[in-house]
Design a protein that fits this description.
The complex is a heterodimer of chains A (591) and B (345). Chain A is an alpha+beta fold and 591 residues long. Helices cover 26% and strands 16% of the residues of chain A. In chain A, strands 5, 6, 7, 8, 9, 10, 11, 12, 13, 14, 15, 16, 17 and 18 form a 14-stranded mixed sheet that branches. In chain A, a hairpin with a 7-residue loop joins strand 12 and strand 13. The N terminus of chain A is likely disordered. In chain B, strand 1 and strand 2 form a beta hairpin. Chain B has a two-stranded antiparallel ribbon. Chain B folds into two domains: 119 residues, no CATH class; 157 residues, no CATH class. Chain B is an all-alpha fold. The mean pLDDT of chain B is 89. The chains are: A alpha+beta (591), B mainly alpha (345). Chains A and B meet through helix 2, strand 7 and helix 11 of A and helix 6, helix 8 and helix 9 of B.
Chain lengths: 591, 345
């Protein structure tokens, strides 16, 4: 009796779930006939929030939000001019991430803190990754989040009215009722065909790195905007801290992104086609060697970082072809890049926010392969106005307060174009410094503790420098450059691949005073720099990483095979001794 | 009694299944998300539930006549502590610290199982049984141990000896000792006697009580006091300077220290050491205002070696801001987090 009851209880929810699925699909089809887009249903506007909520929300707004979004919610707070994308201008009532049809206001109900039915609440809760908007969960209570949204939607949205049934309507994507289609090979194949047929690739690029129509796109306020890079799903604005969830892509694709050139595809795709596209886009997001989603650090909502870059031993020559098996099977490391914000000119908007690095070595050389996404291949026209060794070059940083016209967002894609570039910096004389002391990350500490810098630029040049301080010009090592070699450099569909070979530096004839000694089995302090030429990056205006460690993997020593066997034999002897003692004791007792 | 215990057992089973699922990777590790701000309470509540669960399970099993031997209770309790620390607590605890907790809890388990002579006998009985091998099952077990134990220990030592690359552990002093004085823009400030010139009442007098009365309220959200809005057009003195400091903060500092001053800014994910979290009671709440002034003015490059000046990307703000701007930013940081600066007396 008891058993049969629990069985029923188990079956019931499944049955109910199935019915919802069925009715959802049927509903979607039925409404399609009523000229609503497939998968959508007509919804009702939510009631206006109470005056209390609005008043309480004002207090939240002027403590937390006003600093970027401004006193009138026009997205012009003190922080706005150094941000790209700029903070949202609430006045027009244009919101990006919604369950509602293109052009409509987002779902908002001051009494319903349910994410699937409350788009603005979900946005405040999870933030907008890839922008300066952080997740407010754990900082503001649910109530406070609803309060501040009550204030924003009634007082700061000025051109539209969330409760006026004459001017507004709600057509809601029934995401919970639409069962996803499994990401089978067939589905992915269909998706790959559909993104070409539906012209997604025109903006998002042939491989989805957002490198298609990257220059000419503007948002509703006339600022440059970049198509999303499908390979970095953790930067999707609508990823809701769940970047590998295909439903987020399906939703964005179905509703479009208001205020941007991204349209809704609800009218010219079926629900099934949308799942195929969403599956395919989701499949492009970076994954680990086994094809599993990268582990995401919940504190940063970016991939988790491993600070050790292991370099694999190769017998013989190291291949220059990135498709060679030695490279494709090699472990790669995610290197997070932030703007250089320590010294002028600070780089508030770094368009390169990560590198993928692999490394191999043989008895003479250590080779690094850098891969990073850059929507534009940038090569400076003509000769640069400064020498390669110059550090204090004439590049200005963004002024703090300029007004919209002079803001960092307005200047995107209007910079003088310099060279794309990447550099690897390793500590010289790291053995003389007791751990954890290192030369300073930004071009070394001083003459005594310098850094070894190898820099490649998109004009094809490869230089080796010695850095002796953040504001000291580099010293060029002319004799050394005969020993370094560019094995490969290519920009294709929004991704650079650069392979650089350099000596291990452990030969007596090499100059130890300006060269890093890559010693096997040791942790070599390593820093990475990257420049995006179309971002006007040059000199110290660049992206930087934290300290990583290059580690040349030593071969397994012979002792590792001998000692464990000796130890195991010892354990056997010990066991024998214990057991003999025990049985002797028992015998003695028995006697 | 039985009803309560069965409820406890249910909680225990569900909790253990969730934890096991998270470890194996079937259940997403964020099923029950730890949220910063609630986290200590969350963890304590969770452990309370687990304790209730274990009590329930053990009661139910003995009620059903399948009492769980003390030996296995001890071992599984210890295993639970280790697994919980490794797989549940976030951010991850370094191995050395986990080893310390593990040793402490091992000692605790031993104290528990050896509380009385009888308990101790009960605990070691299964070990003795296997050693004596009086039954066929135990004999089999004994041979299994004889073979498996050396293989396991040999395997572990092999694993320890093959070359591996793990990030070297580097311990950094977050608040190194400050100097007696610091020179910024050509003027020397004695840290013991300097005051924030903007901590003033509307009449322009230095007034710590006035400013302390107008900081944001402690508690969730840390909202401003209803009648102390720095964005009020008529705001004078302290509150006016808080707004000016906030403007500077959101033009310069939030990129790393974050919109809520919690060290989660746009660029923060790329840097190591990570930017300071001012809402944490262990940072600015522990320090004098002049200490912050020194740290802000001199930045990472001005740290002594124990503070890792080579790795910190904190700008020496004297290169970017005026002295007045630095004082205003410091003022804003205390206002926004709702902390009082420590004073010398």
């Amino acid at each position: 009796m008891k058993n049969s009851f629990s069985l029923k209880a188990g079956v019931l929810p499944f049955a109910a779930f199935g019915m919802i699925l069925l009715s959802g699909n049927a509903g979607g089809l039925a409404f399609a006939a009523d000229s609503l887009p497939a998968g959508f249903k007509a919804g009702a506007l939510s009631p206006a929030p109470s005056a209390d909520m609005i008043e309480a929300g004002k207090r939240v707004y002027f403590t937390k939000c006003v600093w970027c979004h401004g006193v009138d919610g026009a997205g012009d707070g003190p922080g706005a001019d150094r941000l790209w994308p700029r903070p949202r201008n609430f006045n027009q009532g244009t919101f990006k991430i919604r369950h509602t049809a293109s052009g409509e206001l987002p779902l908002f109900d001051a009494k319903k803190p349910v994410e699937a039915q409350n788009d603005l609440f979900a946005t405040v809760t999870h933030g907008l990754p890839g922008s300066a908007m952080p997740p407010w969960e754990g900082i503001l209570t649910e109530e406070q989040r609803l309060q501040v949204l009550s204030f924003v939607t009634t007082q700061l949205v000025k051109d539209r009215n969330f409760t006026d049934t004459k001017s507004e309507s709600q057509t809601v994507l029934q995401l919970a009722d639409l069962a996803p289609i499994a990401a089978s090979e067939e589905s992915l194949k269909k998706g790959a065909e559909l993104i070409v047929e539906k012209k997604c690739v025109e903006c998002h690029g042939m491989e989805g790195r957002g490198d298609g129509n990257a220059f000419n796109l503007k948002d509703d306020w006339g600022f440059s905007i970049q198509p999303a890079n499908w390979h970095k799903c953790w930067n999707f604005r609508g990823s809701r801290q769940d970047p590998y969830n295909v439903k987020n892509i399906f939703r964005t694709f179905s509703t479009g992104v208001n205020g941007t050139p991204m349209p809704s595809f609800a009218d010219n795709t079926t629900v099934e086609e949308r799942w195929h596209i969403a599956n395919f886009v989701n499949s492009l997001c970076e994954r680990d060697g086994e094809g599993k989603p990268l582990p995401i650090d919940p504190q940063a909502d970016k991939p988790k970082i491993n600070f050790v870059l292991p370099s694999g031993k190769v017998d013989g020559e190291i291949p220059a072809d990135p498709e060679n098996e030695l490279w494709t099977k090699r472990v790669r490391r995610y290197v997070a890049m932030g703007g250089q914000i320590t010294h002028k000119p600070r780089n508030f908007v770094n368009r390169i926010d990560d590198l993928w690095v692999k490394s191999l070595y043989n008895d003479k050389y250590v080779v690094f392969m850098f891969q990073w996404d850059d929507r534009t291949k940038s090569v400076a026209e003509g000769k640069l106005p400064w020498a390669p060794t110059e550090v204090n070059v004439d590049v200005k940083e963004q002024d703090p307060k300029t007004g919209e016209e002079g803001s960092i967002a307005a200047r995107q894609n209007n910079y003088t174009v310099y060279n794309d570039a990447v550099a690897i910096e390793t500590a010289i004389k790291w053995k003389e410094l007791p751990a954890p002391i290192k030369p300073r990350y930004l071009f070394g500490s001083n003459e005594q503790f310098p850094m070894d810098i190898v820099k490649w630029e998109a004009n094809g040049s490869l230089h080796a420098f010695k850095g002796t301080g953040w504001d000291k010009d580099f010293e060029e090592r002319f004799d050394y450059e005969e020993n370094i070699k560019l094995l490969h450099s290519e920009w294709k569909n929004g991704r650079w691949t650069v392979i650089i070979q350099r000596p291990l530096g452990d030969k007596k004839e090499q100059d130890y005073d300006s060269d890093t000694f890559f010693e096997m089995g040791q942790y070599i302090p390593t820093v990475f720099f990257a420049w995006d030429g179309h971002n006007g990056d040059a000199g110290r205006k660049m992206a930087v990483s934290a300290f990583y460690y290059t580690f040349l993997e030593p071969p397994t020593p012979q002792e590792a095979y001998i000692y464990p066997i000796v130890i195991a034999a010892g354990v056997v002897l010990l066991e024998g001794w214990v057991l003999t003692r025990r049985s002797n004791k028992r015998k003695a007792k028995g006697l | 009694m039985k009803a309560i215990m069965s409820l406890g057992a249910l909680i225990g089973v569900v909790g253990l299944l969730l934890l096991a699922g998270m470890i194996v990777g079937i259940v997403p590790s964020d099923t029950v998300r730890l949220i910063e701000g609630y986290m200590p309470v969350q963890v304590i509540a969770e452990l309370t539930l687990f304790v209730a669960g274990f009590t329930g399970i053990s009661y139910m099993m003995s009620a059903m006549g399948m009492a769980f031997p003390r030996f296995w209770q001890g071992i599984s309790c210890w295993a639970f502590v280790l697994l919980y620390l490794k797989f549940r607590v976030y951010p991850p605890i370094p191995f050395s610290v986990r080893a310390m907790y593990g040793t402490v809890s091992l000692v605790a388990v031993f104290m528990w199982v050896s509380a009385s002579e009888e308990d101790w006998k009960k605990f070691k009985q299964p070990i003795m049984n296997v050693m004596d091998a009086k039954t066929g099952g135990n004999r089999l077990l004994r041979y299994a141990y004889l073979i498996i134990l050396p293989i396991l220990i040999g395997g572990f030592s092999y694993n320890a000896m093959i070359p591996k690359s793990e990030e070297p552990i580097e311990l950094r002093t977050v608040h190194p000792a400050p100097p007696a004085s610091t020179k910024v823009h050509g003027k020397t400030y004695t840290l013991q006697t300097s005051q924030n010139p903007y901590r003033v009442n509307p009449e322009g007098k230095y007034d710590q009580e006035y400013s302390n009365a107008n900081i944001v309220e402690q508690g969730m959200g840390r909202l401003m006091k209803p009648n102390a809005n720095p964005w009020d057009k008529d705001a004078q003195g302290y509150l006016k300077y808080v707004r000016e400091g906030g403007e500077i903060f959101f033009q310069n500092c939030h990129f790393c220290h974050g919109d809520n001053l919690n060290g989660r800014g746009l660029h923060a994910f790329a840097f190591n050491p990570i930017p300071a979290n001012f809402t944490d009671p262990g940072t600015i709440a522990q320090l004098q205002e002049t200490f912050i002034f020194w740290r802000v003015s001199k930045g990472g490059i001005g740290l002594p070696n124990e503070g890792f000046p080579w790795a910190s990307v904190m700008p020496p703000w004297e290169q970017h801001l005026t002295v007045d701007e630095i004082w205003k930013v410091v003022l804003f940081e205390y206002w926004h987090t709702g902390y009082y600066p420590r004073t010398w007396d």
